Structure formats: C-alpha cells, structure tokens
Amino acid sequence: MKKISLAQCFSLLNYENMKSLLPLAIFLTLFFTLSYPTPERGTYITGPGLKPQHFRLPCQYFHIHESPSDDISVTIQGLIDERRYLIHHRIFRSTKDSFIVHYQIPPQIDSLEIRVFSNVTGEDINGSPVTIKERIYSHKCICPEGDFNRWLLRTCGETLDLQIIKDFAFFPEDIPWNVSIILDKLKEHFSNPRSQSYCHYLLKDNEVYRECFGEHVGFNMFVDSILHYLMRIVELPDVEFFINLGDWPLTRKETSPSLPIISWCKSSEFSDILWPTYDLTQSSLECMGRQELHIFSSRDHSKNTVWENKINQGYWRGRDSNVERLKLIQLGLRHPKHLNVGITRYFFFKEEEKELGVKEHVPFFDFFKYKYLITVDGTVAAYRLPYLLSGNSVVLKQNSEYYEHYYSKLIPNIHYIPLEKNLSNIIDKIEWARNNDDIVRKISNEARDFVNHNLLPHKIFCYHAQVLSEWRRRLMNKDRIEIKSSMEHIPQPKDDYFHMQHCSCETTHLKEEL
C-alpha cells in the first residue's frame, strides 16, 4: 500500500475529524520540525541536477536559493578519459530570490564537479562544491537500472500524487483488472474509428509493444517517446495499459463495467486516469533540445520585459475552438483599452470571421510583453497553461470543468486570477489588477514557484512512472504478460549514432544483441 504525506492525510479528512486530531497534528508538526534540519541562512543549492547519476534527465538542473543578488558564478566540469572538460550550462533568474541552472551531460563522464560561488568573496555557497566520483551517463544511453522499485523510491519518493490516488480510487481494489475483458469492452464502446483513437500498450523485458485502434493514431509517437526514455534509465516492470490518443476523455463514470484508460485531460464526469499532457511531456524530453517552447525557455524569454515595462492589458491569441473564445473577441472589440485579443485561425466558426476579424500569428514569447495573460478552454483545457505560469506575467484563467494532472494543486488568487466561465467579470478583474499591482505581482511570483515544485521535468517523468507502477499493481495477470501476435514491436530509436558510439553500456548492449 502506498504511503501518503501528512498534509495529504489531513486534506482527505473533514473538518470535524480534524478538530479531534488537532493535538496529534501539533505533535507531529513539532516532531518533523525538530527532526529535520532546515538549510542554513544564506544562499544554498538543491535539485536533481546535483545528483545526475540518480536521475538521468534530458537536461539536468538545480536551484540556487535565497540569492537576490546576481553576483553568483557557476562552473561545471567533467572528467572524460582522464581529461577535464567544462560542461556548457545556462543560469537565469527563476524568482526574485532564486536562479535555475541547467546543463546537459555528454554521452558519459567519469566524474563531475559543480561549483557555485560568490563573485564578491570567491567563497562557495552552502552545499558547494558537489563532487561525484562515479560514471554518469546521458539520458540517451541505453543504460537502465535494474531495480525499478528502488529507482522509483530513490528518485520520486514513496508519496503518490493526490491526483493519482483520486484517479485510481474510482476503481475498486478488490476487482483485479483483466486486460482482455477491458480491451473487448473498449472495442464495443468506442467503435467509431473516426472519432475515437486509443492504443493498447504492452511493456515486457523493457521493450515496447502496441496495437492501436482508430484512424488518427499519430500521437502514439509521444507515448513511445516517454516510454523509451524511461526504459533507457530504468527497467520498467512488465505491464499492459490503454491510452486515449485524443484530447477528449473517453470513459464516463456511469460506464459499466468501469474501463480504466489513460488520458491527458478530463472532467469530473469521466473516470480516465490522468497523465501529463503529451505537449508538456515532449517539451520536458526536449529541454535544451529541438523544441523551442518549454518551461525553462518561457521563463528565460519572459525576463526580456520586466514587470514595470509590461503593457497593462489582457492578452490572448489562439484558434476558434470554443464559443467562449468568440465571446472574448467580442469583449475585446467593446473594450480595446482593456483587452488585446484575437483569433489567428478559424476552423469551427468560419462564419464569424467577417464580424470578429482575424489577427496575425504572434510568437509565444511575445505574449510576455503584456502583464495579464488570458487562458480560455479550447477543445478541452488549454495545454499552454504551464508555459504561461512559468513566465513573469500573471495568468487570468477561465473557470472550467476540464482539468489536467496538476490542476487540483492550483489555488485561485494565489497562483492565478480566476475568471467566470462566461468571462463576464474579465473587465472588472483587469481593473482590479491595475489597482492592486503589488498583489498581482505576488501572484505571478507564486505561479513560478508552483511551476518549480510541480511542473519541472523530473516531476513530469515521476508522475508517468508512478501511474505505471500503480496500474501494474491492479492487474490480474501481472506476472504472466504475453505479447499478442497483433502487436507491433517499437524498438528504441537508433538514429543517434554519436551516443551509440560513446555510451559504453550501450555498446555492450548492442554487441550482446549481435
């Protein structure tokens, strides 16, 4: 049985129960406060990039805390074949009192040293230097750890995210999942190949197999990518699961029998089990890679326009994929001093183009020239929200029945400014924001802090792994998983010859195959 944190325990209790447990809560709070030392006052460092041998991330990163001054320097050196090399890194301000440093590991290095020091005194800050005297591999090397449970505990902890607990709680634990029956029922319920697409995945001996159903299955490449990445760093347990490839959730709660399937977004009417969206996952995999838009790039580019120089208008650009977006444009036409909004492409409501007009496409990073960034549902929840929260503007978010894996942790008026679903209060909210600039700026800072704690790549990858672990626990025949003849084997990509030549573990792996 998975453990949950003390805070999670109390969030699951009602008020009356909590009153009776107040003395226990006080005792435990004092116990944990006294038992676990806090960092010394002053600047200090934390983050997965300080232990890259434990979590091989596509880009490693760590935080420099309590540093309002910019007089900080970082050096990262690796030892390769007894020669010392400087490793390229980037450092940029994350919040008003912290920085993020990120870097990439070459195919393999024999040791690593990270130094963070003051430019004024030359002295290392708390926790520096970090010296790792063991071989470290790139995330592209096929060098998986053998013990999945040990890796999961060490890198992700034993506390499950509350959203995972809630999603799985819908399905009775005393009824094991029979994959064959679930697949037959999915085929029965979702028989229209044009409107529903999903895949049956099977992981065995750290290899990927799948069979997909429906006409539009191209998004399976995003599922393949995250599975291949995880399999390069750890041997995943044998498991079978189903994933919806569309934006719309699939299984309503009244469906009988209950059909477990993974989706990227849902509402309270659906029982789908959430995974981080394909967009956020892929941007995490491509950090410092081919994808321009990710959590770090949003933060980095947004600093080009400081708070005082931002335009005091609500800003939005997007497609016409929701009627509320049309309402937003109508409001913008009536209140041009408050709103700079526009639809860049019509698909669903082409007849409205003449009246509402069309605006030219604007690069995403230019959004941060504006102080108030609006997010309105599209087909479902707008997947761009993590990147808006990561920048240095403030988000005005429409109330919505749709949510992603992290929404339950977002708090209105703490992490974003809430808007009515019909947007009726948007002008009042912008007026309020203009008159309460200090409060609004604090909301912007809290949003970036939220991203640091919940949406950075290691959190995204842990969420995937924890869902797979919990899913396997529910299977009826978890120890007798067999590859179906109708399934396609999806091997690890072999297009990165540089890593294939320089990862010693991968070289051994390939020789064994030959």
UniProtKB/TrEMBL annotation:
Gene Ontology MF term list: glucosyltransferase activity
Domain Glycosyl transferase CAP10: 235-471
Intracellular or extracellular location(s): Endoplasmic reticulum lumen
Gene Ontology annotations for the cellular component aspect, listed alphabetically: endoplasmic reticulum lumen
InterPro entries: CAP10, O-Glucosyltr/Glycosyltrsf_90
Organism expressing this protein natively: Lepeophtheirus salmonis
Name the record gives this protein: Glycosyl transferase CAP10 domain-containing protein
Protein function: Protein O-glucosyltransferase. Catalyzes the reaction that attaches glucose through an O-glycosidic linkage to a conserved serine residue found in the consensus sequence C-X-S-X-[PA]-C in epidermal growth factor-like repeats. Regulates Notch signaling by glucosylating Notch in the ER, glucosylation is required for the correct folding and cleavage of Notch.
